[in-house]
Design a protein that fits this description.
Blueprint (H helix, E strand, L loop, with lengths): L1 E5 L7 H8 L5 E8 L6 E9 L1 H11 L3 E2 L2 E2 L1 E4 L1
Antiparallel strand pairs: 1-3, 1-6, 2-3, 4-5
Length: about 80
């Protein structure tokens, strides 16, 4: 299942994002969207994990404070 994570800190890396989700299960994919010209973070990204663990992660992580930003977490 693919999960959208919005309102990320500009400093968040794909590795840090994956570590946030690891307590809920194996993360198959972690990606932060970046501007193709500047390389700067667009402040959102995606995680891929199995459906059961993804649902639990979405429920527990939506609107938590992560790296000084309250993140939005939702199924895609």
């Amino acid at each position: 299942m693919q999960i959208y994570i919005g309102n990320l800190s500009e400093m968040t890396t794909a590795q840090q994002l994956a570590r946030l989700f690891l307590p809920f299960g194996s993360v198959q994919f972690s990606h932060i969207e970046r501007d193709e010209n500047t390389g700067r973070s667009l402040r959102f990204g995606f995680i891929e994990m199995d459906m059961q663990n993804a649902k639990s992660a979405i429920k527990r992580l939506n609107r938590i404070l992560f790296m000084n930003s309250y993140v939005e977490v939702a199924a895609v």
